[in-house]
Task: structure prediction
Amino acid sequence: DIVMTQSPLSVAPGEPASISCRSSQSLLHYNGYNYLNWYLQKPGQSPHLLIYLGSNRASGVPDRFSGSGSGTDFTLKISRVEAEDVGIYYCMKALQTPYTFGQGTRLEIK
Amino acid sequence: QVQLQESGPGLVKPSQTLSLTCTVSGGSISSDDYYWGWIRQPPGKGLEWIGHIYYSGNTFYNPSLESRLSISIDTSKNQFSLRLSSVTAADTAVYYCARTSWGYFDYWGQGALVTVSS
Result:
């Protein structure tokens, strides 16, 4: 189904971080979009959208976050981790229903 | 700015029906650009998509819940609702409502904890 990078991911402030998401099926639609989205759930909060359709940053998301990949393999990259980036990151496939979330990757600050 | 707010009982007895309503403000639920969905998260666990609905009433349900699930919409009140029947302790979760378009959820409610217990 969907498998993400193992938790926890421990990263020092200012260092880059990378989270992988692998789908058992291609998420590339014939319209050219990859139906793979990334969310961050900070402690005690609702999840919020970071990246949609594989590589598009959601409104208000800092440009240190980027999404890449196509087909079955996707990556969320944080160029320089900040303390406020702690939480659980989820990818979600949405090419067709049922939508499915990955198991989540917890990011910790060293 | 679109806002969503879940409401409903926080405690439901086993075998009974869980009912939640999501009230949308700052935007029309009748927009033909969006669907309106439900996602849940058991305590300490990950996220599960429940289903979503279009303003016309067209629905998409998670097959694992479909036999017990009903999602409805009331455009006059700018609300949509979730009903899950025959609940067990496994249905204890925080239930989120959210707006969806092109397969991504861009606005989320704050979540409502529903506990199934006698």
The first strand of chain B starts at residue 3 and ends at 7. The interface with chain A takes residues 39, 46-49, 60-64, 96, 102-106, 108-111 of chain B (CB under 8 Å). The mean pLDDT of chain B is 97.
